[in-house]
Amino acid sequence: QTLIERNKEAHDQIRKSFIMGSLKQRLTMAHLLYEFGDHDWLIEGLHDEHTLIQSLCAWLLGEARYKPATEQLIDLFQTTQSRDVFHTTIVALGKLGEVEYITPYLENDNEHTRVCAAAGLAYAGDFTGKDIIMHTTRLNAPTALRRGALKVLSYFEEPPTSTRSYPQSNRQYAVDTHEELARILLSFLEP
Fold first, then answer.
1. Are 150 and 137 in contact (CB under 8 A)?
2. End-to-end CA distance of the chain
3. CA–CA separation, 56 vs 61, rounded Å?
4. How far apart are CA 185 and CA 187, in angstroms?
5. Minimal CA–CA distance to 122: which of 106, 141, 145?
């Protein structure tokens, strides 16, 4: 087989596992689809029954700055019942520059929603929410929220050109995921 044929087979297997694999496999396959630039498959993940898949696909589409996903992300943002998916989608929309959907949430009653809105705006280059982020870095804020706010705070000083870094708490997951992705890819290339 030629390398191109093996690559196509590997791609087909990744897509199949994204649809039919276990939840853990599907999460891993979403990362692979992102790495391969297969963003249209990630759009399909926005309609998945699992909120983890929806949230991850929204995050990855935002990371990719994939404009063709904007309409589906807006739809998910407006219809989801999951707070986690909602928060992830706010940030993803910011990465796509859709600030008009985000700005009203700077005054939301929920602190996490306000921080996500401020983060989304920061990704879009709009620093309206800097005071919200500054307030959230206080010592009595929940640790994960404070850590996220501190990360976003650095964007106000220098807007991010890439957001492919992982929060400290997720670094080991990122390393494990990339090692697993490498093993999967190598297994497809073996004769």
1. yes
2. 9
3. 9
4. 5
5. 106
Q: What is the pLDDT of residues 72-127, one digit of tens each?
A: 999 999 999 999 999 999 999 999 999 999 999 988 998 889 888 888 988 888 87
Cβ(93)–Cβ(66) below 8 Å: no
**Cα torsion through 26, 31, 32, 34, rounded to 10:** 120
How far, in whole angstroms, is CA 60 from its chain's centroid? 4
Those residues with Cβ within 8 angstroms of residue 21's Cβ, 6 or more apart along the chain or in another chain: 29
One-letter amino acid of 88:
T
Query: Does the CA dihedral 170-175-180-184 come out positive or negative?
Result: positive
Between the CA atoms of 174, 151, 92 and 45, what dihedral angle is there, to the nearest 10 degrees? 20
* Residue 168, CA distances (Å) to 113, 143, 144, 148, 165 in order: 21, 12, 10, 10, 9
pTM: 0.74
**Which residue has 């220098």 as its token pair?**
158
The CA-CA-CA angle for residues 157, 138, 97, to 5°, reads 40
What's at 24, amino acid-wise?
K
Give whole-number Cα distances, 125 to 45, 103, 114, in Å. Answer: 27, 13, 16
Q: Identify whether the C-beta of residue 9 lies closer than 8 Å to the C-beta of residue 158.
A: no
* Residue 172 phi, psi dihedral angles, 5° rounding: -65, -40
